[in-house]
Amino acid sequence: MRRHGTSRTTLSWAALAAAGALTLGACGGGDGGKDQPAPGGAEQTPSVALPQLNGEKLEVAAVWTGPEQENFTKVLKEFEKRTGASVTFVPAQDPIVTFLGSKIAGGAPPDVALLPQVGALVSAVQNKWAQPVGPEAQAQLDKNYSAGWKTLGAVGGTQYGVYYKAANKSLIWYNAKAFEAAGVKPPATWKELLTAADTLSASGTPAVSVAGADGWTLTDWFENVYLSQAGPEKYDQLAKHEIKWTDDSVKQALTTLGELFGRKDFLAGGPSGALSTEFPKSVTQTFTGGDRPAAAMVFEGDFVAVNIAQTEAKVGTDALVFPFPAVGAKAPVVSGGDVAVALKPSKGAQALLTFLASADAAAIQAREGGFISPNKAVDPAAYPNDIQRNIAKALIAAGDDFRFDMSDQAPAAFGGTPGAGEWKALQDFLANPSDVAGTQAKLEADAAKAYGN
Does the keyword field hold Transport (predicted)? Predict the structure, then answer.
């Protein structure tokens, strides 16, 4: 499972307010919606014409695993049904640019790849791997996407990608029974979050399950704190490395994050436990064990719902959600996405991009849960429950007023590589949250090398 790291966008402050109200308003009921068929799926009349590709074989690469991969495979099956093509999913590893480079060097690139970072798309274009989208896919983009999402899939003014998947990554999911047992309410500010964490831990349930083994989750923690505390202008500057990671604003954000990470009793398994916990486990251990789970809360995006579905907990009753608390004057909303890019100049690759840009494809995966589409033509009823439906509505309501996730904008060597760059520096910080200056120095040294300045 990789973000989406799902893939991360900064929504407008107005959309944040809407997301908070909608999300909290949806928490009162629902069982995940699996017992009711959602409209907008494959059984409806197709909204996009696709060519016949009888006998053509395609490969699609992405870093998705587990339920996320399984649900995407259902989309590919529908594409096969409509076109007669045969499609194989190829599991990729992070960093995906390195994975694709080895495939291309071996003369066997996949037809289409879904890239979880803007930096990966830029690299694919610079390496002359990517093919511009064809007129049919472009027509779907023009029909179904806001200008901002189209711009994110373009390099140098040429459209190369289709943002198939998005994610709101400013959400904290919580175990309703654990909160009730401790008498805790969802916090709206960082100070309230720390108070709630103290109460939860004192009640015998560690407050937070942190997926420290996956460095990308730690970049999300930092980005939410930084955006809310330092503000969007500083966020933009740091994302472009126009200010250094030794800037005082970074010091403040790390110090704030250390208020949570520095309390061993707040973390499930303490710092060492957090550092050995991968993302899927961080979710499942929060929603097993009744009112005495391994932790009461887990931070991450809407796609957490996919992993909750692997437990007995039900989204909307046992598993509830609140927006990431405000650290500064305004609460953050960070999201992102996976962009589909053709790596072969084939009819089949372009047809698949066209399908992925349609509402038909997105509706199929939306019904399965743990998926949000930036495609504004997707019927909200396709989402399986009110929580995910309203998260999707808030994303669409943001229009073009968003920024993309900071680490995903960075060169992959800094923002998207396991055991290196930002991922490693923040893992070291989780192990020793008191070393703010050392963390800043390491981040700046790695950033300067990766950005070439």
Answer: yes
Residue 318's φ and ψ, nearest 5 degrees, are -80, -35
How do the domains of the chain map onto residue ranges?
45-168+335-403, 171-323
DSSP for 109-178 reads: --SEEEES-HHHHHHHHHTT--B---HHHHHHHHHH--HHHHHHTEETTEE-EEEEEEEE--EEEEEHHH
- Where do we find the tokens 């995006």? 301
Check if CATH label 3.40.50.620 holds for domain 171-323.
no
Q: What is the pLDDT of residues 328-339, one digit of tens each?
A: 998 887 878 999
Distance of CA 68 to the CA centre of its chain: 12
The top-level CATH class assigned to 45-168+335-403 is: alpha beta
3-state secondary structure of 335: strand
159 forms beta bridges with: 154
- What's the pLDDT tens digit per position in 283-314? 999 999 987 999 999 999 988 998 999 999 99
Distance of CA 347 to CAs 59, 83, 134, 183, Å? 13, 11, 9, 59
Residue pair 268/285 in contact (Cβ under 8 Å)? The answer is: yes
pLDDT grade for 10, boundaries at 50, 70 and 90? very low
Q: How far is CA 129 from the centre of its chain?
A: 24
User: What is the pTM (predicted TM-score) of this model?
Assistant: 0.78
The DSSP bridge partners found for residue 228 are none
Which of these, 216, 241, 239, lies nearest to 425 by C-alpha position?
216
CA distance linking residue 311 with residue 62, whole number of Å: 25
Task: Judge whether 45-168+335-403 and 171-323 match in fold.
Answer: yes
Residues 6+ apart with CB under 8 A from 190: 225, 228, 256, 259, 325, 326, 327
Rounded to an integer, what distance in angstroms lies between the CA atom of residue 230 and that of residue 194?
A: 19
